[in-house]
Amino acid sequence: MEVQGKIKLVGNVQEITDSFRKRELIIVTQEQYPQTLCVEFVQDKTDLLNDFQEGQEVKIGINLRGRE
Question: Residue 45, CB half-sphere, CA atoms under 13 Å: how many?
Answer without folding.
Answer: 12
